[in-house]
Structure formats: C-alpha cells, structure tokens
Amino acid sequence: MIVVAGESLIDLVPDGAPGPLAPLLPRPGGGPYNTAVALGRLGADVAFCSRVSTDVFGEALVERLVAAGVATGLVQRGPEPTTLAVAAVGPDGSARYGFYVEGTADRLFELPERLPEGVRAVAFGTCSLALEPGASAYEALLRRSAREGLLTLLDPNVRPGLIPDADAYRKRFAGWLPDVSLLKVSEEDTAWLGGSPAEWATAGPAAVVLTRGGDGLTVFTREYEVSVPGVRVPVVDTIGAGDTVNAALLHGLAGRMPDALDRTDWHELLTFAARAAAVTCTRAGAEPPYAHELIDG
C-alpha cells in the first residue's frame, strides 16, 4: 500500500471567461489529494492520510477519494471549514494561487498512532508541510516512516504566499532531506529553494526528479542523470500535472526503492510519468488519467 499524507482543498478555477471577476468553478484539489486520486485511478493500492472537514466540500472530497478507489481509514474528520485555493490561470495554462487557510480542517491534522500493515511508501508535500500545527505532525510522520525503512517521497510544491519565513522554511526543507528517499521538485521550486537537484541528491534522497514543464523530466542520482522529453499536447491548464508525476513515479516503482533502478529503468519510469502528466494538462483542473488511458502510447 502507498499512503499519501497531506492536505485536501477546493480549487476555485476560472470558467474560461475573460477578466479578473470571471465566475469560479469549485474543483477538488490539493497536491497530496490529487496524488492520491491519481494513484487510485492508476490502480494502485493507496490510502489518504489527512484531516478533512465535515462541511459540504469535505463530503465531496471524501466521495471522490472513494470513487477513485482510495482508502479513507486514515482520514480524520472535523467541523472546521475546508481550505480554499483561488486559481488564476495564465495564457500558457500555468496556475497561480491565493489561499484561504485560517482555521481550516487540514491544519489540525494529528500524527496517527500507526500506519496499516503492508505500507511500503508514504508521500508528503505542498501546504501541509508549511502550515502549523499540522506541519509538525506531518514532519513527525515523515521521520517515523523513514526510520521504519519505508520509501518516502517529498514534493515541496512550494507556495510562497503561505510561507511567512522563507529562510526558516528553506532550513527546514534541508533538514527533511536525510529522511527522504525520492525528492520531486519543479524548476520553480528549485529556483525558490535556492539549491540544485544534484546537490540535494547528495543530502539524503537516492534520487531527485526535476520537472521541466513541457520540456520533460530529469532524474539526478549520485552517479548519473537521465532525461526524457515532454509530451506535446494542447494544454488546457497545468493544475495537477506535478501531482500526477508523483503518482506515476510511486506506481511505477512497484515496491522498488529508487536506488534499485538503473538508467534504463529510470528512462521508462520518467517516460510513463511524462505521458501521465500530459493527459492531465489536456483537462481543466486536476483530472489525472486512468490506467487504460496510458496503454499503448
């Protein structure tokens, strides 16, 4: 089983009309949540670990997890409101966000006593590692999972507007790396964090995957680099594309640790991730592909 730990929220996405006051459509979102849904659609044995509101948005979020085949036994529930993220989509399909997070349910996540038997990997990232008090609980889960020998994936998916002290966050990020098996970062993350994938690959992770937008993906290990091109598609928006990469990597590893892969394995895995992310980009909002959509090309 793969456990994805982190926030769920509602993305408010423009409906395509011009102007800053275009109508907004509510869509389920949150980096970890999207990763869990994508894993479920790929056919993985996956569970979501978070705190979700009991409001109408929270009910819709849980229903979508169930529909994707994601186990919800690790989902804590509470009456606090659901986090909202207002998206502004640029001409190239990229998205910027404004967040409404004060007093929301996902911030009150508590460390579970234990994870189920059979868990082999745990994924972390995005807002959940930046917003206290939940951030400390997720960090504790990351460190405990690493001590237990589980594969740990970290996708910082940095949202600068949610980080009150950038230097403190960068220091905290560096402190996570010894407990991370696989780090996934975007070019934007890398620029903001102020390091390099090659540098981070010597600080703990067995591999660092860099997403380069439409140009593809590159993996950095301590011995080599492997790159694959992006898949050219008509882009509606890029919401959820990086989360789909996370899911494709975890699913494609199939129980292996990152340092067990050779160059050929990485080329195949990155190609699969690029194809999966490309499908997501052809759809509005975070709508990752199902396994059957990735067969034969």
Write the layout of secondary structure elements.
Layout: E1 2-5, E2 9-14, E3 24-29, H1 31-42, E4 46-53, H2 56-67, E5 75-78, E6 84-89, E7 95-100, E8 121-125, H3 134-147, E9 151-155, H4 166-176, E10 182-186, H5 187-193, H6 197-200, E11 207-211, E12 217-220, E13 225-228, H7 241-253, H8 263-281
Helix pairs in contact: 1-7, 7-8
In words, what does this structure look like?
The chain has 297 residues and is α/β, with parallel strands linked by helices. The chain is 31% helix and 23% strand. Strands 5-4-1-8-9-10-11-12-13 form a nine-stranded mixed beta sheet. Strands 3-2-6-7 form a four-stranded mixed beta sheet. A hairpin with a 5-residue loop joins β6 and β7 (95-100). The two termini are 27 Å apart. The mean pLDDT is 93.
Task: Write a brief caption for the model.
The chain is an alpha/beta fold. The chain has helices at residues 31-42, 56-67, 134-147, 166-176, 187-193, 197-200, 241-253, 263-281; strands at residues 2-5, 9-14, 24-29, 46-53, 75-78, 84-89, 95-100, 121-125, 151-155, 182-186, 207-211, 217-220, 225-228. The mean pLDDT is 93.
Which structural traits does this protein have?
alpha/beta; 297 residues; 8 helices; 9-stranded mixed β-sheet; 4-stranded mixed β-sheet
